[in-house]
Specification:
Length: 85
């Protein structure tokens, strides 16, 4: 199954909502070369939608950190629980 990505209009709406700033809490200005869009609060791997309400704007550095420390462990746990059942 291929992963669905955010549409251009969803990305544009999220960028406008964020006022061009990273939404992870650091508030840094996001430049075109470092902007990424994250499925939040529900990761795509856990059934998160591609709606603007589940999309946040992040700097590449912040996105990598969040993915490594929060998303990957949550997804791994979900897989273990599903396999156990």
């Amino acid at each position: 199954m291929s992963r669905a990505e955010f549409t251009k209009s969803t990305k544009a709406a999220a960028f406008l909502r964020a006022n061009g700033r990273c939404e992870c809490g650091c508030g840094s200005r996001v430049t075109p070369g470092e902007v990424q869009y994250d499925h939040y609060p529900v990761p795509a791997a856990l059934g998160g939608s591609n709606e603007v309400s589940n999309c946040r704007v992040l700097r590449t550095k912040c996105h990598r950190q969040i993915t490594a420390t929060k998303d990957v462990p949550a997804i791994s746990k979900s897989v273990r629980v599903e396999e156990k059942a």
